[in-house]
Amino acid sequence: MTDPAPRTPPPYRLLSRRSWPEARFLADVLRTETVGGGLLLLGAVVALVWANSPWRSAYAELGGWVPWPGGHALHLDLDLATWAADGLLAIFFFVVGLELKREFVAGDLRDPRRAVLPVVAALGGALLPALCYLAVTLTAGGAGLRGWAIPTATDIAFALAVLAVVSSHLPQGLRAFLLTLAVVDDLFAILIIAVFYTASFHPLPLLGALVAVAAFALLVQRRRTWWWALIPLAVTAWALVHASGVHATVAGVLLGFTVPVLPSRTGAAGLAERLEHRWRPISAGLAVPVFAFFAAGVSLVDADLAGLLTDPVVIGVAAGLVVGKTVGVFGSTYLLARFTRAELDEEITWSDLFGLAVLAGIGFTVSLLIGELAFGAGSVENERVKAAVLIGSLVAAGLATAVLTRRNRAYRRISERESRDSDGDGVPDVYQEETA
């Protein structure tokens, strides 16, 4: 009697559907971010129109107004535009910190096999844009090298707003990948900002900030959610990080990392999920749109358009977003599948992934922030960075729309199947079939 031939294990599926609890949480996140993306676009459009209108001086005066001139001793004599970049974006990065903590503890990044794809894709999507930028600027003489990190970031809200506009019903696996990719991408952006864009460093305020963060952590770990204690501690940590010379938004990430993710013994949702549910609408609906309003207002009145379009910084940023992101995300995913012999989920094609890689070239919020840190707010280079980010993001959005809408009919069929609930129990049939 011959031994039966050993069975070949099934190939690992990339971009497969998540479990129903994860899918439900993901749907809530994407819904909020999509609305926030629409407000972000509105803020950017209003800023562009105002900055190029006869009343453009009023726009500049509003951004340059200092609401607290007496805050010099605490380094808080900031204008409104800086308050939006350093203050409001700390809320955005607090939510990012909560997302990262949740992904590492209870999400895809907890499982090494599922984590490797978004991590590798995000790494390729950060490295290739930086190399594109450096190749362009070095060829042109090396001017503007400090802006190498500008095209490395993906703006998830802007990308989701584009998907909403084109009515694309992307499969749940692709949407989950896009969100996780953006979260890992934000982690790289945080590290880049903290390491490469800290102009001066003062250790004593940073030590004080760590004490405030530790006190915040002590309360949240014990599930003490007293707003009258947590908010003052968070503001203190933010102010001290700002005074230390490290970009103040890093404080938001540190605070987010301290929040426990796993649910308590009572069975209620984890504190990180509850805080994310509470603060994400403020981040997506207020913090990011207001920052976009103050950051996107580039004036093209009397501008040398020929000089703008031939500027190495502009070309480098646009090429990094459109070409670098696409090649980085798609190429790294393809190589991962090739060397690990993994296969795409049966409902997803390589053209779908290519469209998603192009969509990842939409960089806005963090790209504009890094542009300000690299060249200084109000500088000529920063104004050109704004134009480059807008150009690159719009080109990426247009190309992604052209690629993804070709399969929109198939996406609708998949979406209908993923949402069908024949027995009316609140759980789509497809998730019950997978666990049967």
Describe this structure in words.
The protein is mainly alpha-helical. Helices cover 69% and strands 1% of the residues. The chain has a domain at 17-89 and 112-197 and 288-407: Na+/H+ antiporter like fold (Up-down Bundle). A two-stranded parallel ribbon has the order 1-2. The longest helix has 32 residues, at 20-51. The protein is globular.
CATH topology of the domain at 17-89 and 112-197 and 288-407: Na+/H+ antiporter like fold
Instruction: Provide the β-strand percentage band.
Output: under 5%
How many DSSP helices?
17
Q: Report how far the terminal alpha carbons are from each other.
A: 35 Å
Name of the CATH homologous superfamily of the domain at 17-89 and 112-197 and 288-407: Na+/H+ antiporter like domain
The protein's oligomeric status is single chain
The H/E string reads EHHHHHHHHHHHHEHHHHH
For the biggest β-sheet, the strand order reads: 1-2
**Quick check: average pLDDT?**
86
- The coarse silhouette is globular
Gyration radius from CA atoms, angstroms: 22 Å
Low-confidence stretches: none
Helix content: 55-70%
Keywords:
Na+/H+ antiporter like fold
